[in-house]
Amino acid sequence: METTSIFSIASTNAQWLSARQATVAGNIANANVTTYKALDTASFADTLNDVTNKMELTNVNHLTGTRSIGDVAIESSGKGVSLEAELAKSSQVRSQTELNTAITSSFHRMLLMTVKP
């Protein structure tokens, strides 16, 4: 895997985490509205499969690069809002963001070590 691909995946993950956190925050903000249906984002694996590193055939003998990221799909779960579940999702987003940042920082440091004299 190329390093640029790693950074591309990390960027896509950060965008997905941002969309998921916004969705969770909206669910929490509307928790006391009885008719509000909780929303959630599509899984990151689905988003990644739809967006990055998807080979596209332009010619029988050629393959192209990647597609740009679009909007993250947000789906209604059909249920009311459970504050416990939404707070757990928010905690997961925070943990995943910290992991994403740590991985990106590690690869950045490794790249910097290769260019130092």
Walkthrough of the structure:
The chain is mainly α. The protein has one domain. Helices cover 58% and strands 9% of the residues. It contains 3 helices and 4 strands; from the N terminus they run αβαβββα. It has a two-stranded antiparallel ribbon with strand order 1-4. A two-stranded antiparallel sheet has the order 2-3. The chain is flat, with a radius of gyration of 18 Å.
Defining key terms:
two-stranded antiparallel sheet, single chain, mainly alpha, 3 helices, 117 residues
Q: Label the overall shape.
A: flat
The main sheet comes to:
2 strands, antiparallel
Strand content: 5-15%
Order of helices and strands: HEHEEEH
Helix content: 55-70%
Per DSSP E runs of 2 or more residues, the count of β-strands stands at 4
CA-atom Rg in angstroms = 18 Å
**Total number of domains:** 1
End-to-end span in angstroms? Answer: 25 Å
> What class do helices, strands and sheet pairing give?
mainly alpha
Protein name: Flagellar basal body rod protein FlgB
Organism: Ahrensia marina
List the topology elements:
Layout: H1 3-29, E1 39-41, H2 44-51, E2 57-59, E3 62-63, E4 74-76, H3 83-115
Helix pairs in contact: 1-2, 1-3
Protein name: Flagellar basal body rod protein FlgB
Organism: Ahrensia marina
Brief rundown of the structure:
The protein has 117 residues and is mostly helical. It is built from three helices and four strands; from the N terminus they run αβαβββα. The radius of gyration is 18 Å and the shape is flat.
